[in-house]
Every structure is written in C-alpha cells, then in structure tokens.
Amino acid sequence: MSILKKNKTFSIPDFTQSPCIDKVGVEERVARFQTRSIKSTTKMQGLKMILNMIDLTTLEGKDTPGKVKQMCFKAQHLHDVHPGLPNVAAVCVYPSMVETAVKAVEGSGVNVASVSTAFPSGQAPLDIKIRDTKFAVSQGADEIDMVISRGKFLSGEYNYVFDEIATIKEACGKARLKVILETGELVTLDNVRRASDIAMYAGADFIKTSTGKIQPAATLQVTYTMLEAIRDFKLATGIQIGMKPAGGISNSKLALHNLVMVKEVLGGEWLTNEWFRFGASSLANDVLMQIMKAETGIYQSADYFSKD
What we know:
Layout: E1 2-5, E2 8-11, H1 23-33, H2 40-51, E3 55-57, H3 65-76, E4 90-93, H4 98-104, E5 111-116, H5 126-138, E6 143-147, H6 150-154, H7 158-172, E7 176-180, H8 189-202, E8 206-208, H9 220-237, E9 242-244, H10 252-265, H11 281-296
Parallel strand pairs: 3-4, 4-5, 5-6, 6-7, 7-8, 8-9
Antiparallel strand pairs: 1-2
Helix pairs in contact: 1-9, 2-10, 2-11, 5-7, 7-8, 8-9, 9-10
C-alpha cells in the first residue's frame, strides 16, 4: 500500500520485517559517544542550545493554573541575572491547562504542547482520544504529544497502532504531532525500532521516547536506536522527522552526549528545536548552573533557581 505524506508518495513497509537491532553493537557505539571531549567554547554553545531545546513540563494531577503560570514565567525568564539566555522551546501541559499556558506565553515565541490520547496509559476508546486531541488543539495547542497503545503493539496489532496514530494526526490539524513510544514498556530495542517505524510512516512529526512516568526511559541506547530509524526513514522517503528523548535526562553531561549523538547520526540539520527536543524540566536548572559556573568560576546554590 502507498500513502501520500507531505506531498510525497511512498510505500508502507511490512512492519513485521523491521530491522533487527544488534544490542551489543548499539552499546559499544553509545559508549564511544560518552568519551568525547568537548572544549569550553563548544560546551557553552551546547549548553545554550540545550536550553532552547527543552520542553518545560508539568503533568501532575495537582496542577493548578497558578503552577502553570509559574512554569510559563520560568520558560521566558530562565535566569534574569544572566541576560541573553534563550527561551525554552515549549511548555507541555494537560489539555485542561492549555488555555492558561497560551495566555501566559503569548508573544514570547515559546510553543504550547499538550499531551493527549489518555496520557500516560493510553487506555481509552479511540473516540475519547480524538476528542482529547481536538479539545487541546481548540484551546490553542501548537503541538500534541500522544501515547501509542502499547498493549496493542505488544500483542502484534501493528496495523491498529498505525491507524490510531494516523487518525490522531488528522485530528491535530496544523498542530505538530509527537508520538510517545513509552520505550520502557517495549522491552527490546527491536520493538523500539519497529514502533519508531510505525509512528513515522503513520504521520508523526516527532518520535518521543517516554512519558516520564515509566523507567527506564530515555537511555542513550534507546535514543540511538530511534535516531537510526529517523535516518533510515529520511533516506527512504526524503522526509525529516524530529526526535524527543524524555525522562531521566537530568544533567548537562548526559544532554551533551545526546547532542553529540544527534550530530553524528543525523547531522547538524537536526540541531535546532524544530527537530530536536528534551523532555526534562529538571535539566534546565542543571544547565543554568553549568553556565553560571563557566561565567563566574563558581557554582551557584540550587536555591538560586526556581524549581518550577
């Protein structure tokens, strides 16, 4: 079967025949990325790039409009004593908080992302998932982060997963769609690769590792496997897909390793927040502390940075 996507027609592969992943080979390649030496000037450029790639996130049952407004303020004022820092890429909230977030970041260039499709479990009927998505878009969401039906995937119902993603993509309208694989529940790298392929061919604008609710989440091995899938999809279709590791990336060193990996697997074209994001709110403060250390020679206390 062939489909039309972004004015290009291509055939849908047999997802049961997705490439098998050499786990040992992946681990060896990832280990080499972690030994790279990054010079001071390059490190500072990388740290500021990371800030501009972060999706600040609050996804708790206790979220309030006040908490969302505070997060949106931080998104635009990461550390006012250091002028010239970039804004983050987006703030990510539940659909019920989208309207609050849109008003709070208006005119700043910060996007508003919303989770949908019964996040984080995905355990809801399709009509509810569609309404969930359409409501978030109607409230002003620029981006939708959906979860796949992992139970269906692990049962081998790949066509169901494909069709569900394609349906949610249609419901997104002009909003960009990030498809969360929840890799911690997929068990193997072979499954991660297969789920990545399904998501991209079904219409994902980004593929994303995790909800942040399940561990392990955005390991370097998982991210590398997904980056290879993106590379192969681009070679097969000519279409560029974004990547978002989320969950467990809480320090600058790990984030820099991710950037090195992106540069070497996909190339510099992906090193913008249009094509690469970090889903990690706690990462912002660690990056800010590293920047201030480089600028002043001393670490500032964590008390100098807001938690939200």
